[in-house]
């Protein structure tokens, strides 16, 4: 059976474009996550920890190695407070 050589050029173009688009999307998502892979199946605990990391470091994927939180961490709580007086 003869091979339709004319069809190989569009096939190669489509394959290259899909590969380039996937690679660029993966690179973009990794750069947004500070080089770490994207998180899937995030539950409430993970969201709470990401919010804590965002408040500690300024980025949801950042982590701090200091044993104590900075002083401004006490005033930027995620919990809403109400006045008692």
TrEMBL record:
The keyword Transmembrane applies. The chain crosses the membrane at residues 7-26. Residues 57-85 are annotated as: Disordered. It holds the Pfam family MWFE. GO terms for cellular component: mitochondrial inner membrane. It is found in: Mitochondrion inner membrane. Accessory subunit of the mitochondrial membrane respiratory chain NADH dehydrogenase (Complex I), that is believed not to be involved in catalysis. Complex I functions in the transfer of electrons from NADH to the respiratory chain. The immediate electron acceptor for the enzyme is believed to be ubiquinone. Belongs to the complex I NDUFA1 subunit family. This is NADH dehydrogenase [ubiquinone] 1 alpha subcomplex subunit 1. It comes from Trametes coccinea (strain BRFM310) (Pycnoporus coccineus).
């Amino acid at each position: 059976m003869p091979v339709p050589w004319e069809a190989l050029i569009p096939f190669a173009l489509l394959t290259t474009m899909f590969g380039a688009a996937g690679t660029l999307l993966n690179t973009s998502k990794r750069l947004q996550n500070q080089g770490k892979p994207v998180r899937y199946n995030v539950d409430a605990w993970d969201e709470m920890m990401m919010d804590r990391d965002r408040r500690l470091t300024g980025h949801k994927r950042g982590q701090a190695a200091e044993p104590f939180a900075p002083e401004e961490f006490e005033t930027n709580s995620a919990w809403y407070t109400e006045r008692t007086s």
